[in-house]
Amino acid sequence: MTSDSTGAGGHGYGGERGGDGDSGDVSAGRAGSGAVGRSVGWAGVLAAEPDFARRVADRFGTFKHHILGTLRKDGSPRLSGLEADFRYGELWLGMMSGSRKALDLRRDPRFSLHANPGAGTDLAGGDVRVSGRAVEVTDLGVIARYAAEVRPPEPFHLFRAELTEVVRTSVEDPYLVLESWRPGRPLRTVRRGSEDATLRVD
Question: Nearest-CA neighbor of 55 among 118, 107, 6?
Answer without folding.
Answer: 6
